Aminodeoxychorismate lyase
Amino acid sequence: MSQPWVPFDDRGLAYGDGVFETVLLHDGQPVLWQQHVERLLEGCQRLMIDPPSPAALSATWQAAPTVGWEVLKIIVTRGSGGRGYAIPDVAAPRLMSRRVPFQPDSSAWSQGVSVRICSLRLARQPRLAGIKHLNRLENVLARQEWQATDYREGLLADNHGLVVEATSMNLFWEQNGCIMTPTLDQCGVEGTLRAALIDAQLVTPAQLAIDEVAAVDRLWLANSVQGVWPVNALWTAEGAPLRRWGAPRHDPLQAVAHPLLGYPATS
Amino acid sequence: MSQPWVPFDDRGLAYGDGVFETVLLHDGQPVLWQQHVERLLEGCQRLMIDPPSPAALSATWQAAPTVGWEVLKIIVTRGSGGRGYAIPDVAAPRLMSRRVPFQPDSSAWSQGVSVRICSLRLARQPRLAGIKHLNRLENVLARQEWQATDYREGLLADNHGLVVEATSMNLFWEQNGCIMTPTLDQCGVEGTLRAALIDAQLVTPAQLAIDEVAAVDRLWLANSVQGVWPVNALWTAEGAPLRRWGAPRHDPLQAVAHPLLGYPATS
């Protein structure tokens, strides 16, 4: 499949100086598009990158009509130039995108997934928290902690011991009938599905210590591409079992989240 | 000038999944080459990237004979592929390089420079500390804090208030006749000149609170490309003067460092 290329001196390559989005397309139409645009613009503003126009962003998916599910990846970099870390006086940001076919894992929706806790602790950097920037080595290192396919994801805490997210998904938990998700003002990525669920007043940001995650009533991982995965088993980084959760008849998170994505709720 | 390009799915662009080096060339010969190779290999090992061969690395400067100073930039990325943050089963790392002419700033050697303290505080991530990886948004954001050319650099502390480095140089200070440089086990880049000066037993790693930096007997910034810049004035992030230092006849750091780089010591 043809794809765009960037030169050696692009600052996205040189420094991770840019942001990206991963957008679910259903029959050629983007899902949660407004949330993706808002996060991308927020990221550009935080990094002081001149943002692409709404029309240029929409052009990334308006090209060819398709049927079924795809994932659209969009990258915006500050472009080339500058002297070292100093940005160019007049920067010309690059907007690039690519679409690939996608098949959601519906068995994870109904049967749930097994996850482990990562050893790596995320650093706290409020200047970069929340946005989907291109500095993702912590996620890459965390994802290298396991190869076994029986773990579908790894949970990440920050270096104060607070739960943040999974390597590529947001985290949600239920306690006393309330559904909560970690506050992400120190690190982590504010997922677009997470934002939509907070807007829908289904979910409340809160803090959860990694030592208390095994005690919650329910645990889920979710993002705007994969949908909602109930967690059915939690393991330590050393491979010891920490907790199992049953599969209740009704899933209140999927019931709200999956219609937002065009996915069926499994219960 | 022609330069290499990387595809959209290169992990260096996607995640900053790689390392780089910036090497001074003198008449076509690399300066502190062994230190650059060692740091690059250490970076690859920490990120679990299959390292380039010594012959491939040397080929980046063995091509064309030149006269004078150049800067050689080398980038190694993990290459393309993988599923999201998960690395590919068989990765094919990319090695790229580019040479550009360079002129060191000899007036900064003799007259010293004016620097400011940055507002941004570096996050502490021991898994990434020391290596010259491609996740450099903190440096980019810090460098955006000022435009005035009368500040040549900005000092960075970590979020515990300890001095780490400048945005693109290491920091050295003298107190009671000893020359020290910040320990870099939590964040920061271990410069190759810094490594050579520690090996030469001229410099000792130590801790220094940002609140105490104005009280040191001397302060320098240095790296393997620019050489050693004595700091002659220090300013707060808000632009208030903190300290001025005189220009003593003998500079003990330049006296050892500049011969290592092929630069003259100014005293």
Remarks:
- Chain A touches chain B through 50 residues (CB under 8 Å).
- Chain A has two domains: 11-101, 106-261.
